[in-house]
Design goal:
It contains 14 helices and 11 strands. It has about 350 residues and is an alpha/beta fold. The chain has a 6-stranded parallel beta sheet with strand order 7-2-1-9-10-11, with helices on both faces. Strands 3-5-4 form a 3-stranded antiparallel beta sheet. The protein has a two-stranded parallel sheet with strand order 6-8. The radius of gyration is 20 Å and the shape is globular. About 45% of the residues are buried. The mean pLDDT is about 95.
Amino acid sequence: MNDTKINDTRKAELLSTTVEHIDIRQFDARPLIDAMGKMSFTSRDLARATRIYNQMLEDKDCTIFLVIAGSTSAAGCMDLYAELIRSNMVDCVVATGATIVDMDFFEGLGHKHYQALEIPDDDTLRSLYIDRIYDTYIDEEQLQDCDFTINKIANELEPKAYSSRAFIREMGRFLVEHGKKDNSLVKLAYEHDVPIFCPAFVDSSAGFGLVKHQVDRMKEGKPYLMIDAVADFRELTQIKIESGDSGLLMVGGGVPKNFIQDTVVCAEILGHEDVAVHKYAVQITVADVRDGACSSSTLQEAASWGKVNTGIEQMVFAEAGSVMPLLASDAYHREAWKTRTPRRWAKLFE
């Protein structure tokens, strides 16, 4: 942080309204989803996607992967994702480092995201140490507390290679002991043995904390912790091999989307030619298919790579913060999760 004094009064004005995360238990979206199924365009797509997610929950042999990219956690969906874990509606999470560290773990430490009721010049925000995600604010001073907490966790662990899953599990253990929020996805995943993978883990607050850990240890001539990205791929592929049938509930795209889909190909490379493609797949995205990027590539396209079943898939081209609450509320209130057997895939690595 620079030495210029921050205008605390102005900063407090801008950080006066916290983002309130939606609670899918408090409203029943089933009638609306049923009605949308009789419409067309995105409404009908969402209704079909919701039916597919309910099929995943009803399928006793299906492991469900929640895949998250983008900033919906900061925007108000954080408690939604946490509820999916608490209610045994997902069995494994693959996400960006920002989703897991900068957003969920960040709030687990007691910090908040804020609605931007006005957006002044971004240079003004910088002078106040306020970071902006579209119309959402984050206090940079609080985010640096997240950085240093990651550093603290790393300093207390045995200096060796960890997959992101293994390190995030330690973050969950930390929140159980020191956290300020009960419904943190990272904390609940630890308690329910739901593994979380971040294939680009250091592209987040974790990166700053871990770089400081390594630099400090190097100066002291001591061994240091490192993140093993290959172990991430191996462990996630192991879950796919052991799970049998699987379903993908994907919010956004990017690296997490490709990472989970690639487990089918990796299993084949390892000699497991009997591992099936992902049986079910739903993706919610606003990306444009015309540029050939991963985030926007259709699930039909993924079938050409031998990753996804073309029969039970649905793309929903919509901003996820506006449709995920409807999909998740519908599935929650249909209650198929109540008879699901918890997979507890984290125990596979004990």
